[in-house]
Design goal:
It contains 13 helices and 15 strands. By secondary structure, the chain is α/β, with parallel strands linked by helices. The relative contact order is 0.17.
């Protein structure tokens, strides 16, 4: 399979409602959509999950575009690639920039699956035909607003509720939620909003029988998380701290967490995500797939990854209609009774609607040799 063309598009999609976390509020999502083509004219698609500003990690849309244009695309353009696993090897000498790497590698995975005429899930070794999903709810203006969002999510059938927390929007809020919903699976996501000095406050979360607390401490930490995990009964899930299978191994060796959230963009692509999945399976550590406010293309990649058998906890891949007035794929991602049925068609399993893509595109550039 030879990569004959790469096209980058800069898109901006308005969210249906603002989404607030401890590091900011989003009213829209800017992102880079990547399309790769082979000599037969087949297209593979993926997206960069980097934000416009470096809130989540050091990467941004602009830095991703530069990395793709100046460094990553030249490494794959006009190259014969037998398997997408080779892409990570081509990029190995380039430090970090995982979201940029993941965007081009993901498009090549989709192209590879289409070239083989198999679903992306099958190409990855996935076995599940349907996946359980939950919903992630941002920080709301009031607790009643939060309870209304939870009620809607439960009526829509989602299997678990993730609540964003931050200082002054944590213990009392979770208490009210738990009082209203004593049996609903609930997790709290702190997005690195706390420090080890907050340990007594975080211990109070143990009383609420949470599935987990996600990334409570610094985004680059695995040491203090080990101290915290030894002091609380609620399982810690690491997100921002895990960038590779080596990070995952070290965190598990230290006892820094009992669960790992795998985000394809954060770890540099599907190949590395699969390695982390396999390590955690060997160590009897459950994993789940986190979300980054992806469009339908990114959601399709998340669905394919989640078919691997150690994704035993509901992920964040909610329906397109939860976030977008209209998505860029057809059909859109839908959820029935908290379940997504995995598509059986080749590649990501959804057709990219180029007319809608064009509507949201502010700039594009094509690369050939």
């Amino acid at each position: 399979m030879k990569i004959k063309e790469v096209r980058l598009r800069h898109l901006n999609m308005d969210l249906i409602a603002p989404f607030t976390t401890s590091f900011g509020t989003f009213v829209d999502k800017e992102f880079i959509l990547v399309e790769v083509k082979n000599e037969a004219g087949l297209s593979g698609w993926a997206e960069s999950v980097a934000f416009a500003a470096p809130w989540y990690n050091e990467e941004t849309i602009k830095t991703n575009w530069t990395m793709l244009e100046d460094f990553l695309i030249p490494l794959v353009l006009d190259k014969e690639i037998e398997h997408p696993g080779e892409v990570a090897e081509l990029f190995a000498h380039i430090r970090k920039n995982n979201m940029a790497k993941s965007a081009i590698e993901g498009a090549i995975w989709d192209l590879y699956a289409k070239d083989k005429n198999i679903p992306l899930s099958t190409a990855l070794g996935g076995e599940l035909e349907k996946i359980d999903v939950g919903i992630s709810i941002g920080i709301q203006k009031t607790v009643p607003d939060l309870l209304d969002k939870i009620e809607k999510g439960l009526k829509d059938g989602y299997k678990r509720i993730k609540i964003k927390i931050q200082p002054d929007w944590d213990v009392d809020v979770i208490r009210e939620v738990r009082n209203r919903y004593p049996d609903v699976p609930i997790m709290a996501d702190a997005n690195s909003a706390y420090r080890l000095k907050d340990i007594e406050l975080l211990k109070q979360l143990d009383q609420f029988d949470l599935m987990m607390i996600e990334q409570p401490l610094s985004s680059d930490d695995i040491v203090d998380h080990a101290t915290l995990q030894a002091s609380i009964t609620t399982p810690i899930c690491l997100d921002e701290s895990i960038h590779s299978v080596e990070d995952a191994r070290k965190a598990l060796d230290l006892g820094s967490c009992k669960i790992i959230n795998i985000k394809i963009g954060r770890v540099g692509g599907l190949s590395e995500a699969k390695k982390i999945h396999d390590l955690c399976k060997e160590r009897n550590v459950p994993v789940w797939c986190g979300g980054m406010l992806e469009s339908g293309v990114g959601r399709a990649h998340n669905i394919a990854l989640t078919t691997l058998d150690n994704f035993t906890m509901p992920g964040d891949t909610a329906a397109s209609a939860n976030y977008w007035h209209k998505d860029i794929i057809k059909p859109e991602v839908t959820v029935e009774d908290g379940v997504i049925h995995v598509p059986k068609t080749a590649g990501i399993g959804y057709e990219v609607d180029t007319s809608i893509v064009d509507e949201f595109t502010s700039y594009s550039k094509r690369y050939t040799k």
